[in-house]
Amino acid sequence: MKKKEQKANENEKMPAENMHRFSELAEQFSRYFDTEHFPGSPQSLYEPARYFLGLGGKRVRPVACLMGNELFDDLKPETWPVATAIELFHNFTLIHDDIMDKAPLRRNQETVHQKYGESTALLAGDVMLVTAYDYLNKVTGTVSNQIITLFNRTAKEVCEGQQLDMDFEKSPDVNFDAYLHMINLKTSVLLGASLQLGAMLGGAGERNQNLIYEFGRKLGLAFQVQDDYLDAFGDPQKFGKQTGGDILANKKTFLLIHALETATGEQRAELEALLQTQAANKVHEVLKMFAQCGVDAWAMQLKERYLQGALQHLDDIAVVSKRKEPLRELALFLIQREH
Fold it and tell me: What domains are there in the chain, each with its CATH number?
């Protein structure tokens, strides 16, 4: 028997048919999460936090934590509070991001700072982060230190990514590698860590933990490329909003950076001039420049490269293939979406 197959058999601890799909675990997590996380007083602090959590969301990260656990073993009771901590941390970052971006809306509803004021929004985000650690404290045993270490490392990286994102807004020249590093920190590491935290609780070895982390990290990069692509080229009817929002905001994306790096001198000058205007035809003209630079085809190739890299890491995990199907389905769903 090959060594990899032997490890797979050793790690198969329950029948593959007991595995849950993302949608099933998402429903279970909603029932667990949609309870009371905060005390009643002071209401002026906790009501804004409840309001924001009530806006919902896809909850990909906490459910990924559950899936990371179930890949290796039955769902452990301690995985639910860890998944809850991940979701609270993610919402903490969103509240603070909205303040920094001066965003009026989140999921078509008023942002917390818009509704309750910036000072209250800051505190509402802070109390979510503190509450996340209350949930992490429910983990006991030797794995608890590993859980806290990975959670803290990831939280720092997400903050670093957000700072770089703000720095890039003021920088005229951001190259592809710098942007990739920022997206990796701001977006991808949290998905990778969510999966690895679940794998830790499922008893995965170090090699399998590293592989599932890399699966999530590269999937996060592919997801961001798809997001950037849809904002520029998506069907507004399917995307749910008018395309070109990133262009109007002069937001640096994979697409814009590639266009600036590959454009001729004349094209680059024209593109940079367009970025300085708010003309009614700005989106149309920038998209024409993107087409001339072959940005749409390049973005699809880049997304596919990250996706295939992620799936290769998933394939390399030493458990039987059947157990990986829910994660494979999730990856394809996230990357092939049209909205």
Answer: 3-335 (1.10.600.10)
